[in-house]
Write a structure and sequence with these properties.
This protein is of the alpha/beta class. The protein folds into two domains: about 1-160, P-loop containing nucleotide triphosphate hydrolases (Rossmann fold, 3-Layer(aba) Sandwich); about 160-314. The chain has helices at about 1-10, 25-35, 55-65, 75-90, 105-115, 135-140, 145-150, 165-175, 190-200, 200-220, 225-270, 280-310; strands at about 15-20, 40-45, 95-100, 125-135, 155-160, 185, 225. The strands form two sheets. The protein has a five-stranded parallel beta sheet with strand order 2-3-4-1-5, sandwiched between helices. Helix 3 crosses helix 5 (about 105-115) and helix 10 packs across helix 11 (about 225-270).
Amino acid sequence: MAHLTYGLNQGEGFIIITGDVGAGKTTLVEHLCAELDPEKYITAKILTTNTSADDTLKLVASAFGIDTAGVEKATVLSRLERTLASNHNLGKRCLLIVDEAQNLAVSALEELRMLSNFTSGGSTPPLQSFLLGQPQFRAVLAAPELEQLRQRVLASYHLGPMSATETRAYIEHRLHTVQWNDNPHFTDGAYVEIHRATGGVPRKINTLCSRLLLFAFLEERASIDAQDVVKVAEDLEREIGQVVDNSAAAMASIRGPKNDMAQLVAELGRPVGARNGSDDEVLRRLRVVEDRVEQHHQTIQRAIEIASRYVEGG
C-alpha cells in the first residue's frame, strides 16, 4: 500500500505490482481504489490483456466509456485524449488498472507508454497506469524495446507469500470479521499445517479454510487440529487433481471422434465408386461419431463445472 500510495501521489507514470496467482494483487489495488474520492478520481480497469496493440487501445478507450465501434485508431486516440483532458480540466485524475499484464505484447505495452505522453496543459499528465502481473511480467519488462517505459516506472513491488505468523493473523482477522467466537477452535498445529499446505498464498488459504469450516460443520466438531488440516488438504488436492485428469482424458479421447468425423465427411465427398461403403453406411458411422462427440462434450462440461466450484472456493 505504501508503494501504491507513493506512486499515486506522484501523479504520473506507471506503478508495477507483481505476485504469484492468488497473492492478492487485484485485492490490494481494489482496496486502494475503494479509498479514493470518486469526485477526484476516475478509474478504468482492463481484465483481458491477450490482445493486439490496437485492440488494447480500444479496450482502454472503452473502459473510460468511449465508443470505439467501427472507429479507426486515430479517431480512438483523439477521443481518448479529449476525454482525459476534459476530466483533468475538471480536477479529476484518470487511473488505468491493467490486470494480468504479463499477457500483454511488447507492442501493447508500448501503446500504453505512448498514452502517458498525453498532456493537458497542467503540471501532471491526465493519465496514470497501474500494471498488475504475475512474476514473469518482470521478464517482459526487461525487453530492450521497453526502455522508455521502464524509465517511467515510479514504484514497483513484488507481493510474496505470507509467513506462518502472517497466515495465522490473516485467518484470525477473516474469522473475527464475521463475529467468530473461537468456535470452531483452531489449534496451534492447525495454523502450522495450513501454512504448510498453502505456502502462505491468500487464495489457497481461503479455499482450504472454507473446506475446513465445512468439515467442522458436517462432523459437528468444535475444534480443528493439525490432523484435520492434513486430511482436508489431501482430499481437496485429490479432488482437484481428479478434475484435471478427467478433463485431460476427455480432451485426449475426443480427438479420436473428431478425426473419425473428418474422415467420414471426406468419404462422402468422394465419387460413389471410390467410397469405402454405401451412403447409408457412411451416414450411420457419422451418427455414431456424433453420439460419441456429444458424450465427450457433456463430460467436459461437467468437469468444467466442478473445477469452477473449486476455483471459486465453493
